Amino acid sequence: MKKSLILVVTTLAFSSFASASDDLIVPSAAIDVEANFQAIDTNLDGVISLTEAENQEKLLAAFPDLDLDKTGDLNEEEFKKFVMVQK
Ligand SMILES: [Ca+2]
Ligand SMILES: [Ca+2]
Question: 65 alpha carbon to ligand 1 midpoint, in Å?
Fold first, then answer.
C-alpha cells in the first residue's frame, strides 16, 4: 500500500513538472479554456448554446451573467471568464 502511494506521488510530481515546462509555450489556463470549450461545444459551431450548457450545472447558473453581448450563447471570450472564476 505504501509503495503504491509513493509511486503515485512520484508520478504526480513528474507530470506537474512536465506541464510546468509546457507553460513556456502555451499557458495552461489557455489550454484549459480551449479544451473545455471544445468539449462543451458539441455541435462545433464556435459558441456554447444554452442547450449545450444544460449538463454543466455551474455554467448554466452563470450563463446569463456570462453572456455579456446577450446573443443567447457563449463565445470563447465569454466562456474564458467562467473558467477564470472557477480557478
Ligand atoms: Ca455550439
Ligand atoms: Ca454571447
Answer: 18
